[in-house]
Amino acid sequence: MVGLADPPDFISILDADFVPLPEFLARAMCLFRDQGVGVVQTPQHFINADPIQTNLAATKVWPDEQRFFFDILMPSKDAWGVAFCCGTSSVIRFSSLVKIGGFPTDSVTEDYLLTLRLKEIGARTVYLNERLTLGLAPEGLKEYITQRGRWCLGFMQILRGRSGPLSRRSQLDVIDRLSLIEAFMSWTSTYVVKVFGLVVPSLYLLFGIKAVQADLSELLGYFLPLYLWYSLTMAWISRGRSMAGMSDVAQYIALPAVLKAVATGLLKPHGHKFKVTAKGGDRDQRFIEWPLLRVYGTALAITLAGIAYAFVLHAQGDIIAYGGLALAWSLYNAIILTIVCLVSIEQPRRRKAERFERDEPVLFNIGGRPGVYRLADMSITGARFVSDNPPPVGIAVHCTLRERNVAALVVRRTADGFAIRFDETLNTRVDLIRAFYSGDYVTAFTGIRAAPLGKAIMMRIFG
């Protein structure tokens, strides 16, 4: 672009599966009035459920994993001046990009590194917390894990590079270096602690090895109040986007890939290819993520074996008297590991396109006669309507969606109405995309619903 006769003032980055809402540029460009702004990053919102939501049948009661990051963590980082570019859904000042020699290639997370290089020349990244783009979350567990591993590997490459927090060549401020150290601790200590969390209680129950010098009374007196306070505080701070236990599930799923990426990135930071997150594949059959299921199925078996050995097969006074902490810990681990194993068994997705519930009147034209029917749900390929007097199957109709005239065919009767399939011509397809990606058909997440979430998990276990 540098060689163009009229180079752009700004460029926008969008992944192939992301669509900007009509107001995306108008809203993002406002922040560039400040000449010190090099990047405006907006949150990523998704029209589909991620694998954790889908595999637990909890799409309506549990948020996608990125909601805590984009709704809570990124605004907090922005308040401290350490927000960073996440690639898609961003706008970049072109002159600032040229000054640093274009997009950096030292890391597979070039977006994060872009923010650091721009910061070194005085160009900040700011965060605009408005839903302005819609895209696809990873649809399968393998893709989800690959994505997390790539993010971790890219950060480790940054850590080892000239823009790392301890690099003498870096021109970053203290706050930026501290933010990088905090991110490093998040990628490393969080996941290492998870490993010890699985191993420690089983070591005591199976071999009598004490890693924690505490009994059940001390657990109830010291740790339980802390844990409850932490859980309530996180629920309040995250505004219903985080819940103890379920956060552990997400971390355990990514754990093997993350620890591998940490070791690889620190020991051999160069020579790694960018792994694309595949999207839009066929998901109509059940798929088991065997590597994950083997790891956590084995961990679950060892945990249950430890409980059985210590309290049933080899019960002793010392274990019964002082093993309460290990028992409580192991029971918690067993619950979390069971959920992780359930997530490892991917449920089939019968529909080719995401479908959203609606409740609104839609104007129809059926053979020149107008009519109004109640829209129940829709996707980019079809819709379902509620009616006591549905039109006959096979008849061509026209309906008005978001002020756009869309051709369709009535394909079947339903228990409470009828269903239509939208015409597949180019003009109709364009109208549907514009209507569908207006943002009105994707409901914003409002908060975790603990009781329905628990019910959904129980239904997956026993149903």
TrEMBL record:
UniProt domain PilZ: residue ranges: 350-435
One Gene Ontology term of the molecular function aspect: hexosyltransferase activity
Localization of this protein: Membrane
Superkingdom of the organism of origin: Bacteria
Membrane topology reported for the UniProt record: Multi-pass membrane protein
Iron-sulfur in keyword set: no
SUPFAM superfamilies hit by this protein: Nucleotide-diphospho-sugar transferases, PilZ domain-like
A matching Pfam family: Glyco_trans_2_3
GO cellular component, one term: plasma membrane
Membrane-spanning parts: 184-207, 219-237, 249-267, 293-313, 319-345
Keyword Thylakoid: no
InterPro entries xref list: Glyco_trans_2-like, Glycosyltr_2/OpgH_subfam, Nucleotide-diphossugar_trans, PilZ_domain
Domain Glycosyltransferase 2-like intervals: 11-235
Keyword list, A-Z: Glycosyltransferase, Membrane, Transferase, Transmembrane, Transmembrane helix
Protein name per its UniProtKB record: Cellulose synthase catalytic subunit
Organism: Bradyrhizobium diazoefficiens
Species lineage: Bacteria, Pseudomonadati, Pseudomonadota, Alphaproteobacteria, Hyphomicrobiales
